[in-house]
Specification:
about 280 residues
Length: about 280
């Protein structure tokens, strides 16, 4: 049994039975594990097979609907936050820190409290992460925070994020890249390496201006962002496969909230990194 790169998709059902059509052909048989925020456990109640569902089992429609709702709440929260920070620039740092911390806490609660399928927690995360994303987007584009000015970069980052998402979904459905145990191990190793480098760069920045140069906008920073974006993109394959397993294992419909949470975490990660990369070129 494999785990997933996204924290809310770990320890999936061990038995596969016939179910609704999923993200792909069902031929993908590989492993998944760990995300940059840590290893999280999927709710205990979804670790066992569901040969006899009491009503109906999870379908791809459930996943699409719940993910759409979660992203809609996040987008609305981000828009409101952006407008508030645009009216009062001093709110931006507070929103970034507060939204980021609350979002992380909610993910940890969903994980270790076995509540990843709780819609209240998932939607609360969407609100908190929307505050984080909205304020951070403003800071990346506002001149007073060192941004290049103008909001066009935000639109480019959004298009880039969903373009990558759609592209990786096509890759998964066509089986162009198989989610194998070796692929999973390599991706997990890359994620751990990125986490170590980011933390190391942060610590080094306390002693040397710019740290290791991973976030200063120079050539090394650009290359590092491209690598992170690539790894975030490939992690979608693991997430799609994890959702497919839940569907084939006939998990209950409420499991779609956990899938929505996991995909949203990855989408936010990808969006922030694309926005950061674009800011490097805008500053030039």
């Amino acid at each position: 049994m494999r785990a997933t790169s996204n924290p809310v998709f770990k320890n999936l059902p061990r038995q596969e039975v016939g179910g609704y059509a999923g993200f792909g052909s069902g031929a993908a048989a590989a492993g998944q594990a760990g995300y940059q925020y840590g290893n999280q456990q999927y709710p205990q109640q979804y670790q066992q097979p569901y040969p006899q569902a009491p009503t109906r089992s999870l379908t791809i429609d459930d996943v699409v609907t719940k993910t759409g709702i979660t992203l809609g709440v996040l987008a609305l929260s981000a828009l409101v936050t952006y407008l508030l920070t645009n009216a009062n620039n001093a709110l931006a740092p507070m929103f970034v820190i507060g939204g980021g911390i609350i979002g992380l806490v909610l993910v940890l609660v969903a994980t270790f409290g076995n509540k990843a399928d709780n819609p209240a927690i998932v939607l609360s995360y969407a609100v908190a992460e929307g505050v984080f994303v909205g304020a951070l987007s403003f800071m990346f584009t506002d001149i007073s925070f060192g941004g290049a000015g103008g909001a066009s970069m935000i639109g480019q980052a959004i298009l880039g994020t969903f373009g990558v998402f759609a592209g990786m979904l096509v890759v998964y459905k066509t089986g162009a890249i198989r989610v194998t145990p070796r692929f999973t191990r390599m991706l997990i190793g890359a994620m751990i390496g990125i986490l170590v480098l980011v933390v190391g760069n942060l610590i080094a920045s306390f002693f040397v201006d710019g740290g290791f140069g991973l976030r200063d906008g120079g050539p090394i920073a650009i290359i590092f962002s491209l690598v992170v974006i690539a790894i975030a993109a490939f992690s979608f394959l693991l997430d799609f496969d994890a959702a497919d397993q839940l569907i084939r294992a006939q998990a209950p419909p409420k499991a779609a909230w956990g899938v929505a949470l996991g995909l949203t975490v990855t989408l936010v990660w990808l969006y922030v990194e694309i926005l950061r990369l674009l800011s490097y070129f805008q500053s030039d």
